């Protein structure tokens, strides 16, 4: 079965890296995909570089915000902009990171077909250290069986993918702060925890390196706003868990 992938790339001030991001997608040997890129009002040359890179390639759509929305809201809107069907697989790639090899989508297609999974997560390589990312790992069976994802350490790291039929069951109120605004950061946990809870054992950990996580961006929130990132993480983990439904 040839699955259809919707690749979502939010970015802000990534002029130095967005070429790598787009090129890693263009070079995929699996061609059944659409890529939505969203520029969150960059004030460097990111938008121009992205526009030049995609050229006339109809698989790519480049959007440009007029107001700041941050990654999570950009991802949510871009998913809907892609007009996905229930079985389409959403792939999230940050605009300063890139896919590790040219056969990432092929491996994902094989995984979804073989394991009949609903979502995947892990593993990544850090740049420029070339170390394997320590964060990603398989959730223990007892965590999955007892739906204790919010109590366990964070494991569901890059590369993160999920079927749209899972995503559309996420209540967007759970992606927002007390002011009713989408979280400015920590989008990974806000998105993935509800889907992990719904999917249970149908969430697949992939041990193969599929993603390159860029540690060299000085604007990364874990460097500039770590305290706020931690506060949001605690708020997300206090929310009511979803029931296993899939």
Number of separate domains: 1
Stretches where pLDDT is under 50 for at least 5 consecutive residues are: none
| The CATH top-level class label | Alpha Beta
Structure classification: alpha/beta
Number of separate helices: 9
Number of strands: 10
Oligomeric form: single chain
Q: Radius of gyration, Cα only, in angstroms?
A: 17 Å
CATH superfamily: Spore Coat Polysaccharide Biosynthesis Protein SpsA, Chain A
Largest sheet properties: 7 strands, mixed
Q: Widest sheet: strand order?
A: 3-2-1-4-8-6-9
Order of helices and strands: EHEHEHEEHEEHEHHEEHH
What is the name of the CATH topology?
A: Spore Coat Polysaccharide Biosynthesis Protein SpsA, Chain A
The CATH architecture can be given as Alpha-Beta Complex
Rounded to the nearest angstrom, the distance between the terminal CA atoms is: 21 Å
Report the β-strand fraction as a percent range.
15-25%
Q: How would you state the average pLDDT, rounded?
A: 95
Question: What would your notes on this structure say?
Answer:
By secondary structure, the protein is of the alpha/beta class. The two termini are 21 Å apart. It has a seven-stranded mixed sheet, sandwiched between helices. Strands 5-10-7 form a three-stranded mixed sheet. The mean pLDDT is 95. It has one domain: Spore Coat Polysaccharide Biosynthesis Protein SpsA, Chain A. It has nine helices and ten strands. Helix 1 runs parallel beside helix 2 (46-54). The longest helix is centred in the C-terminal third of the chain and has 13 residues, at 187-199.
């Amino acid at each position: 079965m040839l699955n259809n992938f919707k690749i979502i790339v939010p970015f802000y001030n990534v002029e130095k890296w967005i070429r790598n991001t787009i090129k890693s997608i263009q070079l995929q040997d699996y061609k059944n995909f659409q890529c939505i890129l969203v520029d969150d009002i960059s004030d460097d040359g990111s938008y121009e570089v992205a526009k030049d890179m995609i050229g006339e390639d109809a698989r790519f759509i480049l959007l440009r915000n007029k107001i700041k929305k941050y990654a999570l809201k950009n991802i949510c809107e871009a998913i809907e902009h892609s007009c996905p069907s229930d079985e389409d697989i959403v792939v999230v790639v940050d605009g300063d990171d890139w896919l590790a090899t040219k056969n990432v989508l092929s491996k994902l297609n094989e995984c979804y077909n073989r394991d009949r999974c609903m979502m995947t997560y892990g593993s990544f390589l850090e740049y420029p250290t070339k170390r394997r990312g320590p964060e990603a790992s398989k959730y223990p069976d007892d965590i999955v069986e007892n739906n204790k994802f919010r109590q366990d350490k964070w494991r569901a790291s890059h590369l993160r993918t999920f079927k749209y039929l899972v995503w559309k069951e996420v209540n967007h109120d759970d992606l927002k702060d007390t002011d009713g605004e989408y979280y400015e950061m920590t989008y990974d946990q806000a998105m993935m925890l509800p889907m992990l809870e719904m999917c249970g054992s149908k969430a697949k950990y992939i041990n193969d390196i599929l993603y390159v996580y860029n540690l060299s961006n000085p604007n990364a929130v874990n460097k500039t706003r770590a305290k706020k990132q931690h506060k949001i993480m605690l708020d997300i983990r206090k929310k009511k868990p979803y029931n296993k439904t899939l």
